[in-house]
Amino acid sequence: MLMRTDPFRDFDRLAQQFFGSASGTWSKPAAMPMDAYRVGDEFVVSFDLPGVDPNAIELDVERNVLTVKAERRPLPAGDDVQMQIAERPLGVFSRQLFLGDTLDTDHIRADYDAGVLTLRIPVAEKAKPRRIEVNRGERKEIQA
């Protein structure tokens, strides 16, 4: 099971939309959007990270907490470049997911393609449904 608890995220987003900043840009980068769903025996989590170099993505798991960090760096600019519009947020993005005990955090796979980071987290073997065999034993009589 995948759990997400971030009670301040929606409040921060609302405050950014309402107040913004004096320069007309956000005061901090927006959270990286994500989708999460289950397919068979694994959970799939996709993060939108357009314009992020794959080498600028870090994934860490500690005590069932998955942390995704990514940095979108500014484009190299020369003396003759004058920025006209800068709406794409730059800087470090970070997101944490709390993974349930039923997921196998030792076998997470990560792929990055077309600006989307996709993680595949398998369900742990111990959490998968299994059939228990019932043995048919012979009835033993107790002698007194």
TrEMBL record:
Instruction: Quote the InterPro entries the UniProt record gives.
Output: A-crystallin/Hsp20_dom (IPR002068), HSP20-like_chaperone (IPR008978), Small_HSP (IPR031107)
Domain of life where this protein originates? Bacteria
Tell me the ranges covered by the SHSP domain, including all copies.
Answer: 25-137
* Pfam family for this entry, one: HSP20
Into which family does the record put it? Belongs to the small heat shock protein (HSP20) family.
Known PANTHER family for this protein? Answer: HEAT-SHOCK PROTEIN 20 FAMILY MEMBER
Task: Supply the name of the protein.
Answer: Hsp20/alpha crystallin family protein
Which species is listed as the source?
Actinokineospora soli
